[in-house]
Fold this sequence. Notes:
The chain is of the alpha/beta class. The chain has 13 helices and 13 strands. The longest helix has 25 residues, at 65-89.
Amino acid sequence: MSEQGMRVLGLISGTSHDGIDAAVVDFEQRGSQLHATVVAADSQQYEPELRQAIIALLPPNQTTIDAVTMADTRIGQAFALVAADMQRRFDGIDLVVSHGQTVFHWVEGQTARGTLQLGQPAWIAEATGLTVVSDIRARDIAAGGQGAPLASTIDALVGGSRPGVTGLLNLGGIANVTVVGEQVRAWDTGPANALVDAVVLDRGLHASGYDDGGAIAASGTVDQVLLQRMFAHEYFGLAAPKSTGKEVFNLDFVEGALDGLSVSDADLVATLTELSAQTVADAVRGEGLAELFASGGGVHNAAFMARLEQLLPDVRIASSSELGLEPDSKEAVLMALLGWLTAHGHAGSVASATGAARASVLGSITPGVHPLSLSAGPAPTSLVIQGAADA
């Protein structure tokens, strides 16, 4: 790796657990400003058998240590295949950052106790010969933080120069928001796609396993009794910082709320979509946002996005692409950024966003075939992103 620049491959499978997103990003620091060029972005679906094995691990399902061990290996091998493919297609990658697949995020009340991402990084290092940064959330939790949302790091760098108060929203399985003003604050608002995906998959409502474009939700009517039952969950009343996951928002949550009610499939999906939209709107209402930039798979749900605009009429809602962050590759670019920060000895967390006692350099390092070399320099205060080419 040169002192002038670094090419980093970011890899992640998000809370929708449908596949691996990858981004090759070139970084160059100019004074306190970090410049990032997205060379390529790609996404590879999990093999159906592996995705089913991952789903079987997730709450409310029970699992075994042998199933966890096998999944750790198989996810690591899947990430290694993607990494090796990107390495063949794009020369000069210096570093790989692998988030892996979250299978459990342990939170008690407002305290995060631990988090587990599977995907053994040794497979990536062996397949590519490159140094791998992984296990990026644990250090923030050890410092008293939530380990999430780590998107707040990239959000703070790209949103900090905008006038007024800026919001950045990511809509994966779980929704998280970052508010960039005098201070950076961030938290998980609750479910984005998680509950709708779970119901669509469980009931076979669409071959894709999700509500494609929000068509099912648009065909249904919100059941207000069911909606109020779900709103009563204690998570929505907790103050930020806070984080959550499918340990809370899963099929058991839906079935418990449905107890004694007769709700059609379309009405159920419409109600779950309304829950997601209202909890996002409630979270940012009163924050004084001028703009809200959205990313993640949820931006393709027209029913959700239209409802969010109705609920936040005074906020300009736009795609994160206006900031140089394509909605479908933002998290992979984030991983690349976190790897660059780690390689340069800079904190990858924002303490005011995660609730940690201090900002921490993130991740564990698996060396590649070459000697490990870390660089140092001033921490960047802003990020300029250009390019977002599809691989």
